[in-house]
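Hello, quick one for you while I still have it in my head. My current little project is about how a certain protein chain folds up. You're getting the sequence in one-letter code plus the fold written as tokens. Would you mind checking whether the tokens look sensible for this chain? Here's the protein in full, and shout if anything looks odd to you:
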Amino acid sequence: MKYLGLAYFTPEKLAAMSPDDVKELRSQCPALDQQMQATGKVLISASLGDLENWRTLHPRGGKTHVTDGPYTESKEVVGGLFVIEADSSDEALRIASMHPAATLGEAGGWAVELIPLDFYLAR
């Protein structure tokens, strides 16, 4: 079964942290990402770009309209994603728990949402 992991952060909480604290937090991420990749179950993993460069496309009046920024009206923002292939939901949870947003970054409002995928299109 394949699972989508969405890594969230809270921009206001992250902005409230000192630059040194943010740098220290982010410096811990590569080792955790490597640990996750070492399972051999991660199909894709990516951090998303700066919010200022996001665009949202949505239908209105029969046309596609483009707006700046994320579309959702929430305090948390998706900052990264990953797709894993696991033999069970327990294995998927074990692998997802290695992601930096699941293990550290509480001060920045980090979290991971793990979602089973109904289908997956391979290259």
About this structure: The CA atoms of residues 54 and 69 lie 5 Å apart. The chain has five helices and six strands. The helical segments are 11-16, 19-27, 29-37, 89-96, 100-103.
